[in-house]
Amino acid sequence: MPHLRERVFYAQASWSPSRLVSIKDVDADPYLVFTENKPLKATYATLSHCWGDGTPLKLTVDTLEAFREAIPFFSLSKTFQDAIIVARRLGIEYIWIDSLCIIQTPNGVSKCPRSDEDWQVEAAMMGHVYRNAFLNISATGARNGTEGLYFPRDVQKIAPIAQCPDFKVEEGGSLVLHHSPNLALINASFWDTLSIRSAAFGRAWIFQERFLSRRVLHFGKEQMFWECHTDNCCETFPEGLPIRLKEETYIILKSVYNCFQTRDFSSYHAFGSLFRLQGLTLKDKLEIFWETVVTDYTRCKLSRASDKLIALSGIAEDIYFAGIWKSHLPSGLLWIGRNHVTRPELYRAPTWSWASVDGYIEWHHSPLRNGPSCVAEVISVEAVTPGPAFGRVTEATIQLRAPTWEWERTSPAGEMGADKPVSRYLTVRRRLRDFIPPPKAETRSGKQGIVVVLECT
């Protein structure tokens, strides 16, 4: 496969996950291997999948020792079995599957300190697990472990499409088509549409796993498709997507992510409109990238709300606070919740972080927009993270310095300072500005909060 020849940016031969499932013996059951993060002489694959509502065989404190001897192959879910078979056929000797390599809470038990502790340790290493894998096998079309990797398909709909090569007809020349091929109409959002129709892509963890993996082999309901640093291809376009189809959001984001990680911008012209913007600094481009990633990420779902930050932590390389890059403060505070955003009862992040709410968010401020400029200055930011620096936050504070303006109210008659106001304004340079919400409001806990103006013309 020509797409396997790309440069490998994230290979770290001196590192491996703390546990892997050995699958090298085709005639025997897989078994759990403890590596102590020491290098292996063989490669490993990872599996991205949706758990579903079932209770498949998993690693617990009770099965830990037994798994070191054998993991009964036919007791595994169909998705796990299919993934192991695929990895074996590709000559891969080990596979990392979350529920077989991270200690889980036993069925019927509400809380298990050992599994909670193991989760904190292993979740912090999740970025390294996917970044250093030889291949990520993605059960993209499966809603749960019972469906496996393969689905009935209409081969006529996914037959390879021949692309018309670039050509130039000299002046006075002619072009003759001896064999007129059948025309195929392809949706301009072809790649994104494959993603939207796939159950796995609505899962927040898989959102990160796709970004971090060097190579991803997707088993979709309609066809197989492939992602790597070099190209994106599928059964419809086995030689790679046409340039026009590479302008889709996710492909651009992953290409930009690869460029930022390697600091190699030599092929930026092929990675969409972001790098073609004139007058933006590298910092501005990084800010746009992160805001777009967060916006797309907030569309995804989590089975555990507390994973909101850690499920995205592997993508973060800069120092950030509760999901906001330090270099982007205070403009990174200017997010807006859309479509019935809710705030969970349990604390997950400070209220000024997008991670403190559940639901789709957008950004009000962007280097792409001309107009308001940020006038607030960050004095200090502190965050308490019991685990990885980019993961769960237990406490965070931010101190700002900014100009203040007079707040005034209007009555139905338009008189200032009336007892029953119907609208609120800020007086800025003797001009009235709409101001919603009010300067003082109650949080869910009943505490009084003060609204700070971060941006104004």
Question: In total, how many domains does the architecture comprise?
Answer: 3
Dominant shape: globular
Main sheet strand line-up = 2-1-4-3-5-6-7-8
**Mean pLDDT over all positions:** 74
Radius of gyration: 26 Å
Largest sheet at a glance? 8 strands, mixed
| Tally of alpha and pi helices | 9
- Per DSSP, what share of the residues sits in E-state strands of 2 or more residues? 15-25%
The helix/strand series, from N terminus to C terminus, equals EEEHHEHHHEHHEEEHHEEEEEEEEEEEEE
Topology:
Layout: E1 19-22, E2 31-34, E3 44-48, H1 64-69, H2 78-89, E4 94-96, H3 98-101, H4 113-123, H5 126-131, E5 135-138, H6 190-196, H7 204-212, E6 215-219, E7 224-228, E8 232-234, H8 249-262, H9 282-297, E9 320-321, E10 324-325, E11 335-337, E12 361-363, E13 373-374, E14 377-384, E15 395-401, E16 406-410, E17 423-428, E18 431-434, E19 440-442, E20 448-450, E21 455-456
Domain Heterokaryon incompatibility: 44-209
Protein name: HET-domain-containing protein
Organism: Lophiostoma macrostomum CBS 122681
